[in-house]
Amino acid sequence: MEIDQLVLNYQPSQAGIDVIKQSKMLLIAGITSSGKDTICSKLVASGVYYPIITHTTRLPRSNNGILEKDGVEYYFVSTDQMADLLTNYKMFEINNFGGNYYGTSIEEFAKAKQLNKVAISRIDIHGVEAIYNVAPDAMTAIFVVPPDYSVWKNRLKNRYSDVKLFEADWQKRRKLAVDELSQALNVAETPYYHFVINDDLDEAISDVNDIIAGKDNYGREEKAKTCAKKLLDAIKQNI
After folding, report:
1. Which of 90, 138, 165, 194 is the least crowded, having the fewest Cβ atoms under 10 Å away?
2. What is the pTM (predicted TM-score) of this model?
3. CA-to-CA distance for 23 and 4, rounded, in angstroms?
4. What CATH number has the domain bearing residue 112?
């Protein structure tokens, strides 16, 4: 079966759903270059979390001159390998994102549970939605935003070794950012997001920890949500 058809029809097994429901997880979403990877790395370093690594069919990228490593940033697999994982119900969710497939395996959550750790994942908005639909009580979802449009675009540019490569990707990245921010801010459809500004890394980590601990963080969260709305407007205006 073609992978497009497998993805379209995919549903995890009941055994896989049970693993997810029994997990405790922190899901970190956000637009490209918001800094969610750095936040995840810092939280994992605390020893409390088990990093859930996403499978993807895209090739490794160079970020700031450093090539991504298999099993660190992602599990890099071929389209055929991804199709096998789906055929054998090894994945919990799978999505086409920017022309490549991204998905989370059930085994990753099982490992976190075995180690008695909180599963932490930098995950796209579709993955967050998939988990919420089956295990809303098991997850805390955070959407990370950069402080403003200028900072975001500069961070994004720095991920490319050549300005022409950035310009070739810019419209696709811009559209994805608009789609992600629009969905995250749609409270009627996605009421589960907490917002965090990644301006000062230590403050962002502190905000995440406060949210997980259930501490009153209303002022910071409202500021972050306002920042997300302003960022969305700016990205729409700067085509």
Report:
1. 165
2. 0.85
3. 29
4. 3.40.50.300
